[in-house]
From TrEMBL:
<dbReference type="GO" id="GO:0032259">
    <property type="term" value="P:methylation"/>
</dbReference>
<protein>
    <recommendedName>
        <fullName>Cobalt-precorrin-5B C(1)-methyltransferase</fullName>
        <ecNumber>2.1.1.195</ecNumber>
    </recommendedName>
</protein>
<dbReference type="InterPro" id="IPR036074">
    <property type="entry name" value="CbiD_sf"/>
</dbReference>
<keyword id="KW-0489">Methyltransferase</keyword>
<dbReference type="GO" id="GO:0043780">
    <property type="term" value="F:cobalt-precorrin-5B C1-methyltransferase activity"/>
</dbReference>
<keyword id="KW-0949">S-adenosyl-L-methionine</keyword>
<dbReference type="InterPro" id="IPR002748">
    <property type="entry name" value="CbiD"/>
</dbReference>
<comment type="similarity">
    <text>Belongs to the CbiD family.</text>
</comment>
<dbReference type="Pfam" id="PF01888">
    <property type="entry name" value="CbiD"/>
</dbReference>
<keyword id="KW-0808">Transferase</keyword>
<comment type="pathway">
    <text>Cofactor biosynthesis; adenosylcobalamin biosynthesis; cob(II)yrinate a,c-diamide from sirohydrochlorin (anaerobic route): step 6/10.</text>
</comment>
<keyword id="KW-0169">Cobalamin biosynthesis</keyword>
<dbReference type="GO" id="GO:0019251">
    <property type="term" value="P:anaerobic cobalamin biosynthetic process"/>
</dbReference>
Length: 371
């Protein structure tokens, strides 16, 4: 059985707690208990180093341990600097230092998302006396170099890593054991809802919640979309909304139902083919085919629309969304003992700025019911 670990926000929180403890007691902690909130349990996190920088400031260091997950942040140091603060304002101010990414669509705000904020606030506030205020700065010394090897830039996060997640537990997403865990979650939710939303990763889960979709109807699939679709059909799920980043989800339009890039890509071929089908000119199709990323191809289509008054983004992505729906139905049907697909599939694709690009016809219908 694979070993689970903890997400980056948990280690950042542990370091902040250790630094605050030093400020109050001038003693280093070697272990910190963090209330994970989600799930409702305590995590014991080792503290590597603690140092006082002044009477009003301290620094503590932990190291990431994501368990058996294939995670490039394994063993990376996470620093938290905590400083006493005077005056008005919030009890706890959280900011990103070196190695924490910046959000391009958020005026350069630190990429510290909802769960990380909540985790830090709830664990730190309970340690403060009335009237006390602190500023917490999270630093990832290797964040900038590690970010180059992630897809963060595709989601508008630059110059570092994001503190993203909806839970404190880091599961090994790329292992068969994780598929078993995903199926168990699906079985539970299928017993309670006829309509579910499949999200490949944390960005989809986060955006779906912000749009008002009930979190209990969200199911994380990672790259296991094929097996999860078949399982949902077997469990009697009536409707599935496929909600994802266009660079991932468009693979389904090409019949690729395990979306990890090591297994298959095909995005530029899928995009170019659909551009040709809707009548885009050959030089533009070639430009799409030569685009280094799906995001770059989308940007090219948008620039065409802006300069010529055309509607290529809508035409191309409507075709892709329709293909995702039909290929998903076909995939379920081909794996069904009944020879038919009882589950209806719709799709919603968003871009790196987490803006919706397109909803398929069924996607419109399902979002109307879910939001």
């Amino acid at each position: 059985m694979s070993r689970s670990g903890y997400t980056l926000p948990v280690f950042a929180c542990a370091a902040a707690v250790a630094a605050l403890h030093w400020l109050r007691h001038h003693q280093p902690l070697t272990v910190v208990l963090v209330d994970l909130i989600a799930p409702a349990q305590l995590a014991e996190i080792s503290i590597e180093q603690v140092a006082g920088l002044s009477e009003k400031m301290a620094l503590a260091i932990t190291r990431s341990d994501p368990g058996d997950n294939l995670d490039l942040t394994r063993n990376t140091p996470i620093w938290a600097m905590v400083e006493w603060r005077e005056g008005e304002g919030e009890t706890v101010i959280i900011q990103g230092g070196e190695g924490i990414g910046k959000q391009l669509n958020g005026e350069g705000e630190a990429a510290i998302y909802a769960y990380a904020h909540k985790l830090l606030l709830e664990n730190l506030r309970r340690l403060l006396a009335p009237g006390e205020k602190i500023t917490v700065t999270i630093i990832l010394p290797k964040g900038r170099s590690l970010a180059v090897r992630t897809s963060n830039a595709a989601f508008g996060v630059v110059e570092g890593l994001s503190l993203l997640g909806t839970t404190g537990i880091s599961q090994p997403l790329s292992t068969p054991d994780q598929l078993t865990a995903f199926r168990a979650e699906l079985q539970d939710k299928a017993s309670r809802f006829e309509t579910l939303v499949f999200c490949i990763g944390e960005n989809g889960l986060d955006l779906a919640r912000k749009l008002g979709i009930n979190g209990e109807q969200l199911v994380k699939t990672a790259n296991w979309l094929g097996p999860m679709l078949v399982e949902a059909d077997l469990l009697g799920v009536k409707e599935i909304l496929l909600f994802g980043y266009h660079g991932k989800l468009m693979k389904l339009a090409g019949g690729i139902f395990h979306t990890h890039h090591h297994l298959a890509d095909g995005r530029r071929e899928i995009l170019a083919a659909h551009c040709a089908l809707v009548g885009l000119n050959s030089p533009d199709i070639q430009a799409i085919f030569d685009s280094p990323t799906a995001e770059a191809a989308l940007k090219y289509l948008r620039s065409l629309d802006a300069s010529t008054g055309s509607d290529w983004v809508n035409q191309v992505y409507s075709a892709i969304a329709a293909a995702i729906d039909s290929r998903s139905q076909e995939y379920i049907q081909s794996h069904s003992e009944r020879g038919t697909a009882a589950t209806v599939c719709g799709s919603v694709l968003f871009d790196r700025d987490r803006q919706i690009i397109i909803k398929s016809k069924t996607g419109w219908m399902l979002t109307g019911k879910l939001c």
